[in-house]
Amino acid sequence: MAAIPDPVELYGADYKRDPYPLYAELRERGPVHRVRFPSGVCAWLVTGYEAARRTLTDDRLGKHHSRGNAAWRARASIMPEPQHSQLQVHLLHQDPPRHTALRRLITDAFAPLRVDGLRPRLQALADALLDELPATGHADLVDAFAARFPFQVLAEVIGLPPEFQRRFDRDWGKVVQPVGPTDPGRAAYEARLRGLQRYIADLVVHKRREYGEDLLSRLVAARDGGRLDQEELDSMIFQLLVAGQEPVTQQITTALLTLLRHPGHLAALARRPELLPRAVEELLRHDSAFELTTWRFFAEDADLHGTRVPAGDSVIVSLCAANRDPRHFADAETLDFDRPHRTHLAFGHGTHFCPGAALARVELRIALGTLLRRLPGLQLAVPEAELRWTPAVLARGVDRLPVTYRPGPGAGTGAAPPARCPVTGHGAAAGHERGDR
């Protein structure tokens, strides 16, 4: 094999558009590789499925940023102070037992039974958005649907008041995209941070004045009862607002793009909505929007699958590379809705498995089922090479998704056809599918 750069650069337009050839090469060479991110920080990337699962359950690795060494802190703590200390102590950066206590505060809101009971309401939200599509048969599905539906669902689940729904600026979600101290966009980045922080502060004041039974009210009550400190409260709201919607937006776009690249699969799914549960799992495996995990650190120098990793260096797991490992998934590069069930890692694994996985699955089934049912003849309106992939380090998705579809009674008429379950095809009155899988 020809030599590869050390470290391997995990950025650039070509990489973001299609990282899978690079991941395949890295998997063949071994499970762990030194890589560099746009900020200049270097990390150790885990690529194979079995190595990924073992890494995600390795109790020697911790998530708290205090574990990072000086070299990591010099470049990886891109969010400036005081915001880093005030907004970065959420679940993704905590270890047990504190992680366990914080996670317990939110799990009920995202429990499968509760999510299942929300299906009729979420279906109504999806249909209402498609009612607004232009009857011309042209639309940007990010702006018209993929960026709006997950936010509306999140607002429903966490209890975000209508006035705060109207105030929320989706541009704030870009605070998770890397902008180093010398970047020309640094001023705009810091302005987004300050705007989002003011928004969270106002939201906490509102919820404290008008306690309810919703998740946001319960988090504020936990702060007032001494179970959270102020930075943890603000950080958890920050995580809900950003991580609770952007990954689903991006997963809708990656799934749609995959289907548009595979018109036979798209047609089969439109014709047979009962395939949706298995199709969504395969689409998550085939191209996951949450491409890489967040940082993990060893407290002391340690062996990681045969590679010596210094204490405080960051360890990252490539979920996308693991999900296309041919040693675990037969014919792993192929999209196969009839694939025998094998657990993918799109939502992670172990202690930090995504607490919103059940909700995300329901959102994806409703989103894809509704789009395919109501937008016949769905096609890209531009060459795929013109699509711009977001520069976020950890995630995959496109900023815009211009499409064409056949105008008709399904979209842009101001009145949706009677809602039908995207899983069973039955009318809403006939009930809906139970369970998470």
Describe this structure in words.
- This protein has 437 residues and is α+β, with helices and mostly antiparallel strands.
- The protein has one domain: Orthogonal Bundle (Cytochrome p450).
- Helix content is 43%, strand content 8%.
- It has 19 helices and 11 strands.
- The chain has helices at residues 13-17, 20-29, 49-56, 70-76, 83-87, 98-104, 112-117, 119-131, 141-146, 149-158, 162-167, 186-209, 215-224, 230-243, 246-261, 263-271, 276-286, 319-323, 357-374; strands at 8-9, 32-36, 42-46, 61-62, 138-140, 296-298, 302-304, 307-309, 314-317, 379-380, 402-404.
- The strands form 3 sheets. Strands 1-2-3-9-6-4 form a 6-stranded mixed β-sheet. Strands 5-11-10 form a 3-stranded antiparallel β-sheet.
- Strand 2 and strand 3 form a beta hairpin.
- The longest helix has 24 residues, at 186-209.
- The chain is globular.
How would you summarize the topology of this molecule?
Blueprint: E1 8-9, H1 13-17, H2 20-29, E2 32-36, E3 42-46, H3 49-56, E4 61-62, H4 70-76, H5 83-87, H6 98-104, H7 112-117, H8 119-131, E5 138-140, H9 141-146, H10 149-158, H11 162-167, H12 186-209, H13 215-224, H14 230-243, H15 246-261, H16 263-271, H17 276-286, E6 296-298, E7 302-304, E8 307-309, E9 314-317, H18 319-323, H19 357-374, E10 379-380, E11 402-404
Parallel strand pairs: 1-2, 3-9
Antiparallel strand pairs: 2-3, 4-6, 5-11, 6-9, 7-8, 10-11
Helix pairs in contact: 8-19, 13-14, 15-17, 15-19, 17-19
